[in-house]
Amino acid sequence: MRLNTISGRFAALTIMFVILAELFILLPSLASFRLDHLESRLERAQIASLALLATDDSLAADLESELLQNAGVFNVVLRRDDIRQLVLSSPIPGPIAATYDLRSEGILQTIDDALATLFRPQNEVIRVIGAPVNQAGQLIEITMETAPLREAMIDYGLRLLALSAAFSILTAVLLFLAAQRLILAPIRRVISHMSAYASAPEDARHIIIPDAHLAELREAETALEAMQKTVTSSLKQKERMAQLGQAVAKISHDLRNILTTAQIFADRLEDSADPKVRRAAPKLVNSITRAVNLCETTLAFGKAEEPSPTLSRFNLAQLAAEVVEAESLAGEAAGQVDFLTDIPPSLTIRADRDQLYRVLANLVRNARQAIEGTRQSGTIEIGAGESDTDWWIRVGDTGPGLPDKAREYLFQPFTGSARKGGTGLGLTIAADLVRGHGGRLELLRSDGEGSQFCILIPRAMAILPQRHVTAAR
Fold first, then answer.
1. Number of neighbours of residue 427 by Cβ within 10 angstroms
2. Mean pLDDT, to the nearest integer, of 400-429?
3. Among 3, 183, 305, 356, whose CB has the most other CB atoms within 10 angstroms?
4. How distant, in Å, are the alpha carbons of 38, 91, 96 from that of 101?
5. Does the predicted TM-score (pTM) go above 0.85?
6. Strand 83-88 relative to strand 75-80, pairing
7. 418 by DSSP, 3-state: which?
8. Cα separation, 257 vs 229, whole angstroms
9. Residue 451 to residue 466: CA distance in whole angstroms
10. pLDDT by residue (tens digit) across 126-145?
11. How many CA atoms lie within 13 Å of 432's alpha carbon, on the beta-carbon side?
């Protein structure tokens, strides 16, 4: 049994508190023992004095000395009928050090006198006054030594402490055994379940089943069960998502190769002699291009991480114009969506130009597709500015807003898409790219009047080693 265990500390505290309680009991017990001892001397002295009175005050000197010795006193004074009489006497070895009147002592005074007797090692002569038993007089007074009293008190105290220690040890052992069975055994069972679950958290058989009788332990087991079920469910879901991601990545890889070949042939359709074919060729090329981009986006997401941004200074208005131009040419949306930009022409930021292009393209494309889904016209606005700490870019639209499910799972792959058939990878990749710059992508609002996203890129990112910075474009 070690002190750094619950059972060891429980047993040690039990012994300590029991001994502490016994110490509080010891003082009144010693005081009571001293009082009983003195009263016993008074009774013996009274019996000795009655023996003398029964012989008409005539008693041999040796017999008188024997009576005093048996009573453990030096002399006896008895007051009867208001007459104080020295009944028995013998030489006193020294002066009287103190007088104790047992008729008027309270409990606190008794304890104080007991401690004074116990901690005063020298042998002294004291006077003790008390009331005779059976109303055999008004008072009885004796003189006696303190050494026998002190020895008797020490012997009594040691025996009481030994008995207390024995009871303390027995109590501690019983409590230790009870704690082992009622508390520590269920705790060890919980720990065993936790260890087994940690070794294979995906195995539902290792989930604990609450069956503790103690209310607190049962609550802990219930909470542990709920946590383990949640973790197991999440692990299974992540495993399925990982498997699905691998399958999608493989399909996207092969599909990208097929679409790239189709794109090459579609480019040749622009040279066709048939005017209808030439007019349809750009639409076909754009469609195939979007399909290729989707495959490449899926493959990029399947990688462990995006490459670290390569910083360079560039004009943000020019980058936004490129994004708007690319999206303006996108098939069916031409003429249906108006693009507005509110970016200072001289605004220059430091970031990874290609990655930021991807971020803006994803946001603008999502906004365009949302407006396109309403089959009504709409507006997409790109605004930007700077503060003392950040560059900010806002992308807003007048579309239908994000549904509740999309807002709940925003920035999560395969779950946060706002349109039917979408993967939700665009926002996920955009958020990852912005985080790679030390910034964040936030949804400022989304309601029936449209949605607005904000990109925040900290200016402190500009303080980087020279090898990470490329020449300005």
1. 27
2. 66
3. 356
4. 10, 22, 14
5. no
6. antiparallel
7. coil
8. 42
9. 38
10. 999 988 887 667 788 889 99
11. 19
The pLDDT value given to residue 264: 67
Retrieve residue 15's tokens: 């012994």
Helix (H) or strand (E) holding 390: strand 390-397
186: which 2 tokens? 């269920």
| Closest among 413, 342, 319, 399 to 367, alpha carbons compared | 399
Dist CA 184 CA 321 (whole Å): 70
pLDDT above 80: residue 383: yes
Beta pairing partners, 128: 100, 142
Say if residues 225 and 210 touch (Cβ distance below 8 Å): yes
What tokens does 436 get? 């790679």
DSSP one-letter code for 4: T
- Domain 307-468: give its CATH code: 3.30.565.10
The whole-angstrom separation of Cα 424 and Cα 409 is: 9
Q: What angle do CA 233, 235, 239 make, to 5 degrees?
A: 120
Q: How far apart are CA 185 and CA 220, in angstroms?
A: 14
Indicate the pLDDT class of residue 377, thresholds 50, 70 and 90: confident
**Can you tell me the distance from the alpha carbon of 93 to that of 424, in angstroms, rounded to the nearest whole number?**
108
Residue-wise over 314-334: b if at least 16 C-beta within 10 A, else e? Answer: bbbbebbeebbeebbebeebe
Query: Given the structure tokens 């219930």, which residue do they identify?
Result: 222
Q: How far apart are CA 66 and CA 54, in angstroms?
A: 16
Given a cut of 70, whether residue 330 has pLDDT beyond it is: no
Residue 339: what are its φ and ψ, rounded to 5°?
-110, 130
* Helices 353-374, 316-328: inter-axial angle, 10-degree rounding: 40
pLDDT of residue 284: 72
CB 176 within 8 A of CB 22: no
Contact 142, 73 (CB under 8 A): yes
Structure tokens at 273: 């002699």
Q: Tell me if residue 139 falls in helix, strand or coil.
A: strand
Instruction: Give the pair of three-digit tokens for residue 103.
Output: 């008729």
Reduced DSSP (H G I as helix, E B as strand, rest coil) percent helix, strand, coil of the chain, to 5: 60, 15, 25
Neighbours of 305 (CB within 10 A): 7
- Delimit the domains of the chain by residue range: 6-171, 202-304, 307-468
Question: Cα–Cα distance between 250 and 410 in angstroms, integer?
Answer: 25
- Residue that is written with structure tokens 């995006």 in the block: 306
Asked whether the beta carbons of 94 and 122 are under 8 A apart, the reply is: no
Sheet-wide strand order for 337-342? 337-342, 378-386, 390-397, 450-458, 440-447
